[in-house]
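User: Let's play a game. I give you a shape written as tokens, and you guess the letters that built it. Ready? Here's round one.
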């Protein structure tokens, strides 16, 4: 397990992205080793967490999360969420980090927590990502009308967003039973 000393050295030299790449790669290759525990400790320093590229960090989180099925009480999930929370707290204006936290919480069945986080993000810094996170969280807790409202707010930020229109169509058809409205929404998406 050479990844830990290499990652630690890169981290201490200020080469955060390189350290993150080595550590996350090692975690994928050896899921039984708690590499994320080390990362979480390194991220206790808010200045270090603030130096990371938020988009690259989100990409690494998704890569790890996609490899691990959601398991209740999973220590890997707890470590991954803890690392994501530390980076998101150090970079509160980065919408992708908050969006990823909400999605990860929902994926692991923590729907109410995801909704609370999405509401807080939307109040603090309303944007496209905050609206989409809020819509998905409302839908996950069985509030389709509030989800629809949040999705429509997202379209104010990005009127030509096809995935959001698809999600609206799915919501209209699956949750609200409004098939004609869903078809019209899908047709709008196809025209973009």
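Assistant: Ready! My guess for every position:
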């Amino acid at each position: 397990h050479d990844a830990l000393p290499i990652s630690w050295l890169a981290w201490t030299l200020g080469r955060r992205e390189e350290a993150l790449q080595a550590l996350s790669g090692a975690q994928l290759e050896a899921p039984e080793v708690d590499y994320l525990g080390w990362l979480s400790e390194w991220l206790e320093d808010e200045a270090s967490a603030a130096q990371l590229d938020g988009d690259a960090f989100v990409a690494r989180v998704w890569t790890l999360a996609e490899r691990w099925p959601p398991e209740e009480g999973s220590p890997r999930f707890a470590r991954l969420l803890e690392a994501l929370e530390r980076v998101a707290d150090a970079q509160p204006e980065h919408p992708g980090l908050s969006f990823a936290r909400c999605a990860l919480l929902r994926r692991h069945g923590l729907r109410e927590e995801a909704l609370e986080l999405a509401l807080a993000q939307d109040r603090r810094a309303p944007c496209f990502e905050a609206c989409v996170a809020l819509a998905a969280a409302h839908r996950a807790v069985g509030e389709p009308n509030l989800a629809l409202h949040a999705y429509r707010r997202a379209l104010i930020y990005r009127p030509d967003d096809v995935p959001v229109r698809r999600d609206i169509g799915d919501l209209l058809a699956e949750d609200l039973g409004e098939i004609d409205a869903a078809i019209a929404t899908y047709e709008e998406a196809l025209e973009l």
